[in-house]
Amino acid sequence: MIEPELVKQALKSKKVRSEEAFGLEYLRFNDDFKDIPRGTAIFKDFVVWGYPHIGRIFVLETGLKEQFKAPFWVEEKVDGYNVRIFKYGDGYYALSRGGFICPFTTDRLPDLIDLKVLDENPELVICAEVAGPENPYIEESPPFVKEDVRLFVFDFMRKNEPGFLSHREKVELIERYGLPSVQILGRFTSSDEDIKKIKEILRRFDEEGREGVVFKEDSPENRRAKYITSYANLMDIKVNAKNMLQLPPEYYTNRILRIVLFMLEEGIERNQHLYEELGRAFIDGLFEAIEQYKKEHKVYRTFRCRFRKKENALALLELLSKTSKHIQVKQRRLEPENGYWRLEFDKIYLNMTGLLGHLLKGGLVYD
Amino acid sequence: MIEPELVKQALKSKKVRSEEAFGLEYLRFNDDFKDIPRGTAIFKDFVVWGYPHIGRIFVLETGLKEQFKAPFWVEEKVDGYNVRIFKYGDGYYALSRGGFICPFTTDRLPDLIDLKVLDENPELVICAEVAGPENPYIEESPPFVKEDVRLFVFDFMRKNEPGFLSHREKVELIERYGLPSVQILGRFTSSDEDIKKIKEILRRFDEEGREGVVFKEDSPENRRAKYITSYANLMDIKVNAKNMLQLPPEYYTNRILRIVLFMLEEGIERNQHLYEELGRAFIDGLFEAIEQYKKEHKVYRTFRCRFRKKENALALLELLSKTSKHIQVKQRRLEPENGYWRLEFDKIYLNMTGLLGHLLKGGLVYD
């Protein structure tokens, strides 16, 4: 549990807010506070700890040797959004990374995973990635999810406890309950031979358009690190061009640096094709934004997803409106379709819309 | 003149600092303060006003119509650094944009311009760009300066007065005293026909590797705006890769947006070549930084310039050390060569050096 005194301090420094959703009242850490990660949620009967940050290595060869003293498991990192699923009373709920009860994921849980595992082990919290073209949060989706969304378990936590179940315990649960999970690529060491194998996996992932891998040490310390393919970095640049003004300073420079280090490490030649890919990622995204603005006087992206209950679709729109800074959320369509409620909505990027409006009508910029 | 009360207020808010250089004591505005631009310098007998900001238009067609009500002159914008030259007692001095007396420019004035104009008109301040491969400040240089530096006059101010002499007065002075000046491309209006001509100039400038143009209204308001070629934006990205972490957030995104708008306006097709150029600008710069770090354990760039007096070279190094944040300045060589003092020094980019050091030895980054 978390000391009441600590919660009081966090409340004072506005690191904790009180939330209500699906009839549940709880406290949500909206920022890291001391040892408590952002997204930690304190309910009446228990705490669901936030999913901790995982550091990124930019160079496999030195990074794995530096970070891991024991063998580690390599798992695929799926390009979606992170949820923590738990049982409360008779209900099942999914928390977003930030600690909101996600109306979309919570609504769709019965389609995504059999939660018998939580009936028989109600103290467990399932950590999973939800990914696919029909999600309300991110534009990217993995190549192996062709429609809607799918869920991929990658960790278990226990209520009231930070930290994860061991790899062995996790795999047992996944197998016993037949849970959908991320691909586990094997147990490796940071020997030169193993690093060669890991590089081969990542080169293949890059070609297949997969995001990357997470390394998890097979030890009580359970040290972790992630590594992302050049493909995923390029996609990040491309899909975010519309929202360019909203991103933190290092967003682009960091990704370009990662691409260059990926190439160096994988022995990929600097060639016309790669130059072209990076240039295209920036330019096409911006072109699209400008063309869209010229036609419709706003820069936006349309999201589509399906719900079991209409009320959850409305709750999602409300949550997005509340939590998206400088983005206007606008419903396009909400109607029954093949047994679901089909929601379509736009995220209008207000900063980009404002800047393009100013520039295209001939405004001055001082810099 | 500037009201003493205003100077007092500025001193209180730390917008003014006291400086000493070349035996002159003065007050320097290190930031904009009310109507007083950064770089304004208050000497015992007079004030040299700062060179005001010129806004940038991103779109010629609408920008010129929106910004200019009267005909305007189009002048070449030379890619160098901005100085204001004035006479004090028997000496001539050059102030940098930020209001420092530049030891390099001041030292080299006799090589760059005949200052008889200031002897006969001591109330004048010459505004000029100094550009070329051997300057101590910026990596870029215009295609028409093959060695050392050259000076290009583009405005005159009067001591104690903000604002500029009229175009007619400027041209008269330039002609009477045979001063080196920027290229004046003509007097235009924002008619469709003239905009077509201006676009042609900029397309040619882009192909020739020139930076862009400044528009100056031929009216008492003397409204101004600048416009930059796609070439110059690409070069900015390329040469700054080594110092990537030091630049403000919008540095890159802004330039990419400008490139895309330039293409749209000039009817340049999105093609493989352009994609490639942008990708290359980012990737080659970073590759070079990484290769340099691997070999020498630091990321730096070497600058070369020549001085008439050794003491001025040393003063420049001291000024750069004092004013460059997160950059270490290191002398390589200072010795007589062909009647000058040849200075070579490195600017070591500490942030990039630190980050690459961390990443290449396998460090984690949390983001």
Rounded to an integer in angstroms, the radius of gyration calculated over CA atoms of chain A is 22 Å
| CATH class identity of the largest domain in chain A | Alpha Beta
Question: Structural class, judged by helices and strands of chain A?
Answer: alpha+beta
State the CATH topology of the largest domain in chain A: D-amino Acid Aminotransferase, Chain A, domain 1
Identify the biggest protein-protein contact and residues per side.
Answer: A-B, 53 and 53 residues
The strand order across the widest sheet of chain A is: 1-2-3-4
C-alpha termini separation of chain A:
50 Å
> What's the number of domains of chain A?
2
Strand content of chain A: 25-35%
Give the SSE string of chain A: HEEEEEHEEEHHEEHEHEEHHHEHEEHE
Number of separate strands of chain A = 17
Low confidence ranges of chain A: none
Oligomer: homodimer
For the largest beta-sheet of chain A, the strand count, sense and barrel status come to: 4 strands, antiparallel
User: Mean pLDDT across all residues of chain A, rounded?
Assistant: 94
Helix fraction of chain A?
25-40%
- Number of H- or I-type helical stretches of chain A: 11
Shape-level CATH architecture of the largest domain in chain A: 2-Layer Sandwich
- Choose one word for the global shape of chain A: globular
Per CATH, the superfamily of the largest domain in chain A is: DNA ligase/mRNA capping enzyme
